Structure formats: C-alpha cells, structure tokens
Automatic annotation (TrEMBL):
Protein name: Ribonuclease activity regulator RraA
Top-level taxon of origin: Bacteria
Cited Gene3D superfamilies: Ribonuclease E inhibitor RraA/RraA-like (3.50.30.40)
Endpoints of the signal sequence: none
Length: 232
C-alpha cells in the first residue's frame, strides 16, 4: 500500500475533532480552517493532500473576464491537479464573489479531485451540487470571482480560513469543517489517531452505561487500567 493510500484509509475513520485534539497536544492550536462548512449535510469524511490556490484582492487591470484565458488562471490550475488531491483555495474570506462555478467543479470532479475546500464561496450552486464534487465553503454568491478577487497562482503557501497551508500538507474534512495536518506531523497523527478514537469509543460506551465523567474523561489510573484490560 502506498503511503498516501495508508493516510486516506487510516484517517477516513478519524474525526476532525480527534485530529485537532492530537495536534493541540503537539502544540498546534490553529489548524481548523474557519468558514469551511460542508455544502451538503451528507458529505462523507474526505482525506487528501492539499493542492493550493491563491487569490488576492481584485485589481481592475487584472481581474477581468479576459484573465480566465491567461496561463495563470484557475482553469490552468485545475488541469495541474492530481487525482485524489483536495483543492484548498485562499479566497481571503470573500463571500460576495464565487471562486468556482459548476463548469470548473465538473472538470475537477472528472479529474478525480477529492474535494474543494475554501474560505470563500462558490457560484451556480445547483450546478455545483449536481457535479457531485464535495465542497466545503461559506456558501454561494452569484457574481464571478473577478468581481472581488484576482487569481495569482497555485501550489504555493496560502492562508485559508486563517490557517497556513502548504502544498502536500494533509487535509481532512467532515461535518465539523476542514482541518490541516502539517506534512511533517502526518506519521505522528497516523500513529496516535486510531488509538484516540478507540479510547473515546470506550468512554462513550461507559457513559451509555451510566458512568459519571469525573475520573472517566479524562481517565484516572483506575479507568486507564480498565481500558487497557478491555483491549486484551
């Protein structure tokens, strides 16, 4: 199994809430991308390497419909996206100009892009939903991107929802939003996350049986011993 396949298989069963807890214990507090809400309530949890795209404020001589044909365009960036990546777009939190519409999202879906994550919005909402591409964003707006933004490049460090994202970092997105795992910490998260999920599942079972939280969550020595015994 390739390393990326192992990452996807392992983290598909780990919530973003668990990942943020693990990263908090490693000193990282700012990994949840603000404004990244699932466009559909039934979107599955998705995992992939970040493919970054960056917008800056609109400048009238650059942010024009003609720019869509430029070599530095969202169209060109989409053609560079590898299968299985998660497109992470820095839209500066702008919510009155849609960065992608149905045609661009359809092309991303056709290329096998796993998801689109942005702190901005999309346009052509019904069409975007029809493409089947999972999207995490702040909603929808009718105006095109050039009404408020200028596209400047891809596969460079960006800020998305107040989080620094570098190409090939790992992104996990679920009902709670999108979370970044720095590439240098992915092995640590892969080691710790499944055990954290098992432990919290055990705690939930105890709560369902009527156990009180003090001494259980977090566990005292007695409950730690009971948990370890339950694994044998």
């Amino acid at each position: 199994m390739s390393n990326d396949a192992r990452i996807v298989e392992t983290l598909a069963g780990v919530t973003t809430a668990t990942i943020t807890t693990i990263l908090l214990k490693k000193g990282l507090r700012n990994v949840w991308m603000r404004g990244t809400r699932p466009l559909r309530p039934d979107q599955p949890r998705l995992v992939g390497r970040a493919f970054t795209l960056r917008f800056v404020p609109a400048r009238e001589d650059l942010a024009t419909p003609e720019s869509w044909s430029s070599p530095t365009s969202t169209r060109a960036a989409i053609e560079a996206m590898p299968e299985g990546c998660i497109a992470v777009v820095d839209a500066m939190g702008v919510t009155d100009a849609g960065i992608f519409g149905d045609i661009l999202c359809a092309r991303m879906a056709k290329k096998g892009v796993a998801a689109l994550v942005t702190d901005g919005v999309v346009r052509d909402l019904s069409g975007v939903l029809g493409t089947g591409l999972p999207v995490w964003c702040q909603g929808a707006a009718a105006p095109p991107s050039v009404a408020g933004l200028t596209f400047v490049g891809w596969q460079q460090p960006i800020a998305c929802g107040g989080v620094a994202v570098f190409p090939d970092d790992v992104v996990v997105a679920d009902a709670d939003g999108a979370v970044l795992i720095p590439a240098a910490l992915i092995d640590t998260v892969l080691e710790l996350a499944p055990e954290q999920e098992r432990f919290e599942s055990w705690i939930m079972d105890e709560v369902e049986r009527g156990a009180a939280l003090p001494g259980l969550y977090p566990p005292n020595a007695e409950n730690k011993a009971r948990y370890e015994a339950s694994k044998k």
